[in-house]
Every structure is written in structure tokens, then in C-alpha cells.
Amino acid sequence: MKMSGIMEVIEQAEGGRIKLTPEQLCARRARSIAIAFTLGAFVLFVFAVTVVRLGSGGLAGPDYMRPVEAIGRI
Amino acid sequence: MSLTVARAEPSVAGVGDYIELMKPRVMSLVVFTALVGLVRAPVPVHPVMAFTALLCIAVGAGAAGALNMWYDADIDARMGRTAGRPIPRGRVMPGEAAGFGFTLAAFSVVSLGLLVNVLAAALLAFTIFFYVVIYTIWLKRSTPQNIVIGGAAGALPPVIGWAASTGTVAIEPLILFLIVFLWTPPHFWALSLYRTDDYARAGVPMLPVVAGAAETRRQILLYTLALTPVGVAPWLLGYTGAAYGITAVVAGSAMIALAIRVHGETRGHTASKQMFGFSILYLFLLFAMLLVDRMSGGLFGHFVA
Predict the structure, then answer these.
(1) H or E element: which one contains B271?
(2) What's the pTM?
């Protein structure tokens, strides 16, 4: 089973490139779409959180990271 | 040889296999208990920030699940309950699961730290570390106390939720931690009583395998006796109203009654199976009532208090 698996892969190779089976192509496409969707959602998500934090002044950070004058003005 | 094949064969793993690696049922319990910790905190939290925290905690739990399946693939393949997982089935290669788990772990911790707060991120990182390294790699294969100590990882999400909301840790989330911590042994030992052969075949030193069924039944009863008063503690300490208190007393009494039945069971596993099933309901009821109590402002309770 294992050796035949290797042989199949070798036999599928054309010009040094592995030719994927329809099942492998389908699985790869599904994974690629899922990764694209996840990354897109992550970007939108970070954007949304940034907007919320900007709105609440949360991005100003803790007092010890700001100059004394700035804290005084706030 | 098999490793060579694993690298040579292009992957056929689908999205569903990767979702399965994240143990969605465990993840749902983690998210639920973290939500309760977050909502119980006395600080109003923006819905987007609450969602962010829960998402990061969910992804962190998924990372821990994937890393657990990566390391335990040999054990999983020998147990009937876990033989159908993606790695033993050959759908996902161990290296792929490890890469997936480490990536999710890093993303979840860094995102929680940058978007919510550092304490919550540190607690999430510690939880993943504890579950993967302390429980999975070390304790699970070496001691029958594996799930007792390892249970700490599953008990931390309410504390992370609280920390995400407040940036601190207080007594109340530590009580929630203690409830889940003491709930874990009777829950898993009830399961292991009727899966003893599975664990023995896999070489996992669960309590029934090492100390026998009688000792396991005794330990289930002792832990249930310890769990019940801790379950009522949020009410006794004035954190919740009477509705929660009554639920905790009634559900706790049912847990004790079942533990006594398990203790006295000499043939078959009917009581153990009932105990396992009811323990899930018990934890759900307690945490659901904590949620309801916060939403209703502890309305019922203050009649009595």
C-alpha cells in the first residue's frame, strides 16, 4: 500500500511536476478558499476593532508610555 | 517508510478535517465558560471587544486541540473513541496538524494581546502551554492524576474571559475555575469506567486502568462531594441570586445521587454513563444560570439575600 502510494506519485509525475488527482485538486482548492476567506475576515476584523478602540481612546495606551505634558492635557 | 509516503503524497485534507482537528465540541464548552467569565465581570465591555476576546479564546482552544491530536496520534489510533480522528484516518499528516496548531496558537495569543489586553493573552498562552505540554506530553502518559492536574487547562477559560473584560483576576472567576477544575475528574472518570479497555490498549494510565474500577468509583464520589459546595459558593458568597443557588443545590444533589449510584454499581455501566451525561448538563446549567443571573441583575436572589 505504502510502496504503491510512492509508485503512483512517481508515475503521475510529468516533467518533474506531480499531477494531482481530481480529489487532491478539489481539496487544495477548498483549503485555498478557506484560507483566503479567513485572511479577509481577519483584516476586516482588525479594522473593526481598531475603529472601536480609536473611538474609545483605547489606542492612546497606558499613561506611562506617554509624555507627562500629554497626560496633563488629557 | 511511512514518513516518506506522507511527504510524497499531496494532501487530500479538506476544510472539515481541519475544523475537526480543533475539537469543536470542546471549543464550544470553552467559549461558553469564557463568555460567562466575560459577562460576569463588573465592567461593561464593548460587544466588538467581547467578540474579539471570545474569538481569540476559541482559536486558542482549537490550537490546543490540534496540537493534542498531533502529539496523541499514536494513542488515538489505538482507541475506538478516537480512531476516526483526521490523523489516524490518514486525512491529515501529523506535521500538517502541528503546523496548523502552532500557527493558530501564535495568532490567537498575539491577537488577544494586541487587540484586548496582555493579561488575557498571557493566560491564554499559559492555558495552551498547560494543555499541550503539561497535560498531553507529560501527565497523560505518566500518571493516573493526569486529568486532575490537566483539568486546570479546561478550567481557565472563565478566568481568561474575566481578564479580557477587566484586565485583572478576582475571587469570582477563581471560583468558576474551581467549579470546572473539580468537575473534570468525576466527568472523565465516569467515561473512563466504561472505556477502560480502550485506555488500557492505548497504554494511557487512567485511574480505572491503574487503580481499578472500585477505587475510581470512590474517587468519583469524593470529587463530587467536593464539587457540590463549590458549585453553590457563588450564591453563598453573594455573587449571584437565589435562582442560581437553587439550581446549584438541586443539580449538585442530583450529581451526588448519581455518584452514589456509580459507587454502588457492581455490574454494567448504566450509572457511569448516566453520570457522564448528567455531568455535562450540570456544568451547562450552572454556567447558564450564572449568565441568566447577570442578565437579570440577580433579580430573584435579592428577595432572599
Answers:
(1) helix B270-295
(2) 0.86
